[in-house]
Amino acid sequence: MTVQETATGTDATGGRPVIPTRGRQRPLGLHEVQLDSGFWATRQATNAAATFDHCESWMERLGWLANFDRVASGTTGRDRPGWSFSDSEVYKLIEAMCWEFGRTGDPALDAAIRRLTERIGRAQDGDGYLNTCFGHANQPPRYSDLEEGHELYNTGHLLQAAVARLRTSGPDELVEIARRAADHVCETFGAGGLQGICGHPEIELGLAEFGRALGDGRYLDQARLFLGRRGHGTLRDIPLGRAYFQDDVPIRDADVLRGHAVRALYLTAAAVDVAVEDDDRELLETIERQWERTVARRTYLTGGMGSRHQDEGFGEDWELPSDRAYSETCAGIASIMLSWRLYLATGNVRYADLIERTYANVVATSPNADGRAFFYANPLHQRTAGNVPDDGAVSPRAESGARAPWFDVSCCPTNVARALATWHCYAAAAADGELTLLQYTGMRINADIGDGRRLGVAVQTAYPDDGLVTVRVLEAPADAVTLKLRVPSWADGAVVEENGARRVVEPGFVALHRAFTSGDEITLRLPIAPRFTWPDPRVDAVRGCVAVERGPLVYCAESVDLPDGIGLDDVVVDTAVEPVDRDGRVVLHGIRRGAAEPGPAWPYGSARAQGIGAGQSAATATDRRAAVPTGQAPAIELVLGPYHQWAERGPTAMRVWLPTRQ
Amino acid sequence: MTVQETATGTDATGGRPVIPTRGRQRPLGLHEVQLDSGFWATRQATNAAATFDHCESWMERLGWLANFDRVASGTTGRDRPGWSFSDSEVYKLIEAMCWEFGRTGDPALDAAIRRLTERIGRAQDGDGYLNTCFGHANQPPRYSDLEEGHELYNTGHLLQAAVARLRTSGPDELVEIARRAADHVCETFGAGGLQGICGHPEIELGLAEFGRALGDGRYLDQARLFLGRRGHGTLRDIPLGRAYFQDDVPIRDADVLRGHAVRALYLTAAAVDVAVEDDDRELLETIERQWERTVARRTYLTGGMGSRHQDEGFGEDWELPSDRAYSETCAGIASIMLSWRLYLATGNVRYADLIERTYANVVATSPNADGRAFFYANPLHQRTAGNVPDDGAVSPRAESGARAPWFDVSCCPTNVARALATWHCYAAAAADGELTLLQYTGMRINADIGDGRRLGVAVQTAYPDDGLVTVRVLEAPADAVTLKLRVPSWADGAVVEENGARRVVEPGFVALHRAFTSGDEITLRLPIAPRFTWPDPRVDAVRGCVAVERGPLVYCAESVDLPDGIGLDDVVVDTAVEPVDRDGRVVLHGIRRGAAEPGPAWPYGSARAQGIGAGQSAATATDRRAAVPTGQAPAIELVLGPYHQWAERGPTAMRVWLPTRQ
Fold this sequence. Notes:
Chains A, B: Residues 440-528 form the Non-reducing end beta-L-arabinofuranosidase-like GH127 middle domain. Chains A, B: InterPro entries: 6-hairpin_glycosidase_sf (IPR008928), Beta-AFase-like (IPR049174), Beta-AFase-like_GH127_C (IPR049049), Beta-AFase-like_GH127_cat (IPR012878), Beta-AFase-like_GH127_middle (IPR049046). Chains A, B: It comes from Phytoactinopolyspora halotolerans. Chains A, B: Residues 32-421 form the Non-reducing end beta-L-arabinofuranosidase-like GH127 catalytic domain. Two copies of one chain form a homodimer. The first copy, chain A, is of the alpha+beta class. Among the domains of chain A are: 45-229, no CATH class; 428-525, Golgi alpha-mannosidase II (Immunoglobulin-like, Sandwich); 539-593 and 628-659, no CATH class. The first copy, chain A, is 31% helix and 17% strand. The first copy, chain A, has 14 helices and 23 strands. In chain A, the strands form three sheets. In chain A, strands 3, 14, 15, 16, 17, 18, 19, 21, 22 and 23 form a ten-stranded antiparallel sheet that branches. In chain A, strands 2-6-7-8-13-10-11 form a seven-stranded antiparallel sheet, with no helix packed on it. Chain A starts with a helix and ends with a strand. Chains A and B meet through helix 11, helix 13, strand 14, strand 15 and strand 20 of A and helix 11, helix 13, strand 14, strand 15 and strand 20 of B.
């Protein structure tokens, strides 16, 4: 049976990471969306021009690629470089290259993909098993450490790479390698086989989509089996507890995401795939409730998820420290993968809202402007300026105030690569007689809206720098269809204008239903004036603070923008004065604290602080009434920039949440 | 040479953990202080009656004691139970038993000490090496893992146990075992030997005091060598960085305590010992500056130290989260050890202030009332009620809202045992012609104040329940001497009364200099009315919150004291109403938040919260202006209890820092 024969019901070359067989919305494909210049087109260009080579050269230098050659040549040893999941970085890079190749057709990318595929293929065992860390000479046996070994996790990423290849250039050797690996997994872990699961969910995502792409139900069946086994203590207990890898509670019984954030999000995204393919409404609704509570109580203003360094995990409800926010880049990407699947299944605008927030403030924050250094963790508060990692050095995973070229655990750079290469896939969606614009940038869309009808539009905008979005109809069927525009949740007082008629629209979707003709123009004006944002009082870590947002962008203050001798701890914000836009930066009215260094000997005292260091001496009470009204303190201009640009000018202290004058 | 001969210049039976050869203050000995009933006498009694047996039986059950037998019988194997530092728990228990035996002379304790000593002695190698984890059959070689192996750490605790034995009942087999072990360390790591140090400081403390107790300078020399080697990258680098074990910066060049809290505090305490013995003023002043900044910026209201779970370490300045406070019990005890050495060297009252705070709010908090369960970490905020650990189960080290009988890493119970057994050693100090009362409880003191003069007093008080302290002179020399009373830093408006004369005194020391006669009575009235305490505004984690203290005790709110259906997140404090004492508990005027469950879909919004959930929906802006003035919210009586008693009534949510009505 060839791929073409099995591809019925799916679009094997649709250039989309997710193609459910049912759902409220249909993702647009490769040839239906093209970006012009703009915020995201720039990042896609840098990704292709710099990040791909950067990742491949690091993996060559560290021997992660040579690991495949050593398996092929039978020279594996105990000195294998890299963690057990290093194979997955190669697969994620290939996946990114495939999506990018589908977009641009750059032959150099195709050559790179074939080159890497050849090295990988030679490492595959006769029975389809493919892994460079287990099962060969001087290595532990296959599947001898399901908790930590990441064997199935690696395979899951291989399958996602194959899906990208299949949908952007058709079946080839990579797809066949993946099929053999997937078959091996089904034979080994099927109903009659090993009743195990992988400590790091991902194989479920890979199997579900690979099955969709090939139209092969066995792979979805295996994904369903893995999901069903999880949550029953199938894995060995570990010091961090089974919640770490979501083996504590079955996904149908859970009420919130918990444990390791990336694990939880990959798992839940795969559960949506299974729920959709099975038309399992109960499971889908359970997952929607888990998403709701997670977003309402365990998510950062940036869209970032994961509050704890100790286990890279979610904290409890309202546990959202700015300074120790882990907010791993990969967790942001995994959150987008989950929200996108939920959007396609339900058509609920809230999922597109979170996707925009997370792309703009987590994914866009990770890479440096040159695409060759990355943030792994994305804290909302950097207390002291970090150190710039040595260009040639591998950084520890997350403890830095500066982007690093590569990490010991380096999941983020290749994840950023595939996330940027697919941004356009999340920009719009279609349904029968309907086109929905979800994200805004300069782009051309020509969408199949069913029954052979096409709706084509050109979107012109400088968003997010500017709030004016112009949508010009290029092609439309004769009969009435619906054009939906997403009005972001923060967009209070957005205005839609067509045929000279203006109306204020609420956040959510604005549906324009009529017969469009080529040349029709609709404008959407989004209010991108900077605004103050306040936290729910139950978020203890940022009580008494305010943040500034502008359009979809979270802003932050950096110490490099302060006058010499003034630190971020010395300033409070006077929120009686509205924030002012100054060429894309935001100016606030700050008030300098009189805080004398070194400040009190004991930081707790009987004087209520008025913006300067209160507190009594540990020795005497003499400086106990140190507080002075800030009204007497000097005013200072506080200039904020977009959070996604922080530390681009070098090490700096940084705050998203700024203390307010009480 | 016998111990007696070498003991010149030290009091070999003084019953004190620390006896410097010089310093501003002299610690009082075994026969100079006796406690009556009271807060600390009760805890010492429970410690002796329950905690010792509890610890020994757990270590027997887990095989930590049998590890010594297996070395003796040559049956060591890879299946050795316990961590590499489990030997030290046995030594800490013996140390506690020795101090307690010195206090009470209970023959059962003496028998237990001899019984344990015998088992330990049989495990000692011919050359003095003593360790159950390294250097024997099926074990890694001696000193093959200085970073993590804890060999010298274990020996340091052996030496401290021997010091306790020597000073409470004289030389015996335990002291000889320790001497052989100490000699082995000096021979192995001396100037011409291995240039290594231990990943966990402690050997330095043990060597310095053992040297003092024996009057043998070689041990102090070795301690000085170890201290000098540290901070130069002597140990292998680790993912957490060399700051974790203070091998990043020489102690003379550091400006604040950092890295693993217990390691940093043990190391610095030993550095004080060396500085004092060497009369090294520069080193002593450096350490005083490090203490100042650590206390001013890296210490919790309870006196607890260590903000991070990830590395059990100090955070950065002002990084003091309540909910994730690690505040390890052992770190509190180590902090007391450091502050006591600094007090003896300088006579500065601030060190006694921190000792009182830490004993009352960290050490007293760890054990359950029955002395058979303990807190390892001491957070200031428990978001959800914890689970009561199974009585027979070993708990993970720190993640619980309930005290556990024992831990996988179980350093805290035995440390609590030795800390409680020595509380009276910190209650007073003497100098030439001077007696200083540092801590208050019912006790009798008869102190040698030099030149054969003695000053004896009886202290009567119900402190900390009550603020009245009566000091009656029992014995005094004919000439004028000084009686100093410590007025705690929080005691605003304390009053001293003698011979009918009353005067208000400032926090610090009140010195009464005159000729006292038997029967003279001095009363000190400390204001123990409950008070609000406010944080320095730079402590981000508790901005907009207030705490309540009463005398030396920190108070907390527990969810078990709230009406059904009301959680700690639903209440804010109206600080316009002063706290009221009600039989040792404190009543506040609380205001209930109108926060509707499940609350907003997105916890950040354009409405400034007034005490209820603000924030806009992730989907729409409809509930964006949800805030209502708290003036309309119902009042609620908020009853607080002492923090050291929290969770004694079972699992509960808890807060020390309470949000205030803005």
